[in-house]
Every structure is written in structure tokens, then in C-alpha cells.
């Protein structure tokens, strides 16, 4: 896990070469990679965890559009961290973050067998597949949080700012 820009130390969130992955993009919050290989959702999540990340969690329209644009040339749906395997229709992200943004295609086939999210590279909407479907996947590696000292000094300002507007993503070059 790497420190992010603006995180208090002046460091940047820099992408490293990961064998078996292509770097998609870097924001002020995370580094995103696309796998070269196809895996089932649970194996993809396990591989992401072994690399210090997780299948991507999408928390805003901006993030969704950045990712959709980054995978637009793939011509195939891509696995994301969305799932309802614990309880049908109780959607959650594989990293445990709350589902604050929802973009499920209203025509999706969310039967009891289809529990795992995929991102449509043409529309940006999400659909679901069963546990046996193998797809490429997006690995998200979060940047390290700011240090405790910098958090204390900026917490009040950030709190006031978040009350005024929703957070936006900044994209950084490789």
C-alpha cells in the first residue's frame, strides 16, 4: 500500500509493474490494474488480496466512468467487487465498503445463482454472473491513508469540505 498525494507526506501514489496485470489508472485514492488472465470471481478476489488489494469497489459516478473509459477497448465485461453471495439482493463490495453508489442494469439476471458483479465496458452499467464465469478483473490497491498527525491537522477542514460537496477523483499520470 502506497501513500497518496495530499496525504500529508508529500508522497505520490505510484503504480508499480505487476506481472500478469496492466496498469489502468491512478487516482488520489487508489491504483487500478486490469488482469491479463481470466479467473472466476472468488479466485480473482483471492489473487487481489494476495497482492494487497481487492476487486474494485466503485463509489461514485466519476469513478465508474473513469473505469469504464479505461476498459472501453476490452470488448468484454470485467469482474468487479460487487456481490450478493452472503444474502440475495443485499449487495456489498468485496472489501467491505458500503454500497453508496449503485449502477446495476435494471435488466440484469439476479437469480440466486448470479451473485458476482461485472462492469459493462460500453455502458458502464453493472450486471451479474454466476460463480463459474471466468473474466478479466480490476485489481484496486488503495493508497495508504495519511499519517495520524496529518489526519489530526486536516480532519476538521476535510469534514467541512465533505459537507459542502461530494468527493471527486484526481487522475495522475503513470
Describe this structure in words.
By secondary structure, the protein is an alpha+beta fold. It has 3 helices and 9 strands. The chain has helices at 41-50, 61-71, 148-164, and strands at residues 21-27, 30-35, 54-55, 78-83, 92-93, 114-119, 126-130, 138-142, 171-172. The strands form 2 sheets. Strands 3-8-2-1-9 form a 5-stranded antiparallel β-sheet, with helices on both faces. A 4-stranded antiparallel β-sheet has the order 5-4-6-7, covered by helices on one side. The radius of gyration is 16 Å and the shape is globular.
Summarize the topology.
Layout: E1 21-27, E2 30-35, H1 41-50, E3 54-55, H2 61-71, E4 78-83, E5 92-93, E6 114-119, E7 126-130, E8 138-142, H3 148-164, E9 171-172
Antiparallel strand pairs: 1-2, 1-9, 2-8, 3-8, 4-5, 4-6, 6-7
